[in-house]
Write a structure and sequence with these properties.
By secondary structure, this protein is of the alpha/beta class. The protein has nine helices and 17 strands. Helix 3 packs across helix 8. The structure holds guanosine-5'-triphosphate (GTP) and magnesium ion. Keywords: GTP-binding, Initiation factor, Nucleotide-binding, Protein biosynthesis.
Length: about 350
Amino acid sequence: DTHDPTSLRTPIVAVLGHVDHGKTSLLDKIRGSAVIEGEAGAITQHIGATAVPLDIISSIAGDLVDPDDFDLPGLLFIDTPGHHSFTTLRSRGGALADIAILVVDVNDGFQPQTLEALDILKRSQTPFIVAANKIDTVPGWDPNEDAPINDTYESQSDRVRQRLDESLYEIIGNLSDEGFSADLYWRVQNFQRNVGVVPVSAMTGEGVPDLLTVMMGLSQRYMKEEMEIDVSGPGVGTVLEVKEEKGFGKTVDIVLYDGTIKEDDTIVVGGQNDPIVTEVRALLQPRPLAEIRTESRFENVDEVGAAAGIKVAAPELGDAMAGAPVRVVRDRDLDEVIEEVQAE
Ligand code: GTP
Ligand code: MG
């Protein structure tokens, strides 16, 4: 493994928004795989994590992103469900995130879970941008596959442009009602102070190059300014899911947001009763661009660094809980780590 302890950690990007507004489709478009096909029913039931390496981002963003301008290894996207009954999963995803994308259907506008997601972002003070999705459904839209927004906007008729503008200004108005100063992203100078709105289509890929460019820029600046993270220390993470895995028994899917985790590390995991102290038997990594939730072919790795989605196989995980903390002990005092896990 070529993990460089001096590099910036992979930023965690939560994708939030109302049910059916296109969160999973947008990630699907980005990773170019068909996760949506594997979903039970139409709604996303669980949080999934998807790592997108910098070179893939820059190839999608085309001329807009030059990989030489960035130190970041890529972005780790966390999908969340929009259905109203999944408040805990949304807040878990939102709380884990360094930055976020709030997806809003451009025709449907602000809806209850849009407002709920905004509250989560407000409370956790997470910088975010708004993806005004489904621009291809504006009546009369002439699609230009995967084009930057400026190019496709210029090629639309006056009537279509006007319709899109109206919808976008309504979203900007809604954001303003919630206390956020927002504007179309190309007019925003400081993305930490003002919310940028990026028109996109998860279906045609229009605006997706812009979205990724803004996310890279925002995370690069944010990670440099706000975080001096020791990416080589003992790992810290959160359990997303507890799952039975053939040949491994109960395993936990975690998002590691700080430090590293290694095979044979002693870890402490929050349990239904007491914290669980156990030893890592195997670290199972989904292939890059794969979805941890649906991917069955894992790669065995010796070590991973933050941020990453990783499946941990270890004995005694039967009582582990989704949302619980995970901490690597390594050279630390075990009792102290147990106390930390209990306190969280
Ligand atoms: P939940 O996970 O249930 O909250 O929904 P979601 O936000 O992940 O929405 P999803 O990606 O499942 O998309 C919902 C529906 O909208 C699907 O039928 C998609 O095909 C459709 N859709 C998503 N994005 C677009 C878009 O940009 N254009 C069009 N025309 N349809 C879209
Ligand atoms: Mg979804």
